Amino acid sequence: MRGTIDIGIRGVAISLLLIAATACSTPGDGDGEGGGGVDGDASPSATIATPADGSAFASGATISFTGSADDAEDGDLTASLAWTSDLDGAIGTGGDVTATLSDGAHVVTASVDDSAGQTASTNVAITVGEDEGGGGGGGGGTTGASEIGFLVVDEVDRESGSVLVSGSGGFWSFDAEIPEAFFDAPWAEIVGTCDVYTLFEEPTDDFQGLPVPDDLNITFMGAGDPLEVTAGGAPYLSLDRFEESFEGQTFITYSTDGEIPGPLEADLAATIPGDEFPAVASAAFPSVAPFELTAPADPGAAGAVDVDTTFEWSGASGDANTIVTIDLFAPDTLTSVTCYAADTGSFTLPDATKTELGADFAASVDGAGRESVRVESVGDARLVLAVARAQEFTVPIVVLSE
Known about the structure:
Largest sheet: 14 strands, mixed
Number of domains: 2
Structural class: mainly beta
Shape: globular
Low-confidence stretches: 1-13, 19-39, 131-142, 204-213
């Protein structure tokens, strides 16, 4: 099947990211291709030569990591190849790196960015210490997971002055495992990029270079009814189960019955009664600071944004598990732009997007906000917990003539 699993989430569609992740490099496949990249600029590629996927090393061993990276426009990027371990963090940079890693099961990732801000990555799974790598204890091993749950709590601050909170979610079984590297860095493939499309065309089938497989089989799972979200241990939101059948498939989603007044409470946790997806008790949501776009000064005004605008916002976290989404709309050309920025406090359009939009581009900010995720292992399944805090603006009305 193709398309987004729409569960009513403002901001980044992590459901589509999960689908796209099945087309990413799984540990040891050595394929760092991005699948096309931004129009007019090819994605870079990254490969790992050594160690081989599944390699095992003795405690205290010095391990050699070798690989290469290349880009059609920038040429050889091997010197910029960055190596990280999901257990130990940064390992080093370059085509030939040595390191001594802690005992345990590691997913080692090699990644590189090109000058247009596009990223390629690939990874291998290795173990260090002769007693490691058994995959027991309910952590799901290092290969990934095929059963995924996603819950999000949304706070939207509208220009009218109302602040409203809601929740939604879904649970899916995929016929291919989502690589563990995705859960370690879910935003890695899109941060620093923008999607551009017009009112009369559908968004590109490639999600920032990650092709969505046409033949991917997804089964919607039940997780009990209702799902409860608490704030500081007290009842806060109740997410009811909704079921609908279409073309022989059953779609199961969860959402609140409308919205409640904000602002968002602190110390959120989810309790899932369990069904096909396992039960979970008091799984903590991430903490997300209030969001305010501070530049441009009047975001919703006509022409508030051009290709050289610098966007700035409050409460920057610098957290790799947090992303800022900025939605733009240009009424003159009926063009929509969605940009994904690291939560550093400022962002400018990447060069590839500036070229695509053209020097005369003028737009308003439709909405902006930050979203943070936390991943919890539930046996062999993964539960992705997200909190999004966003602003919505009133943009110019478009009247279409016949």
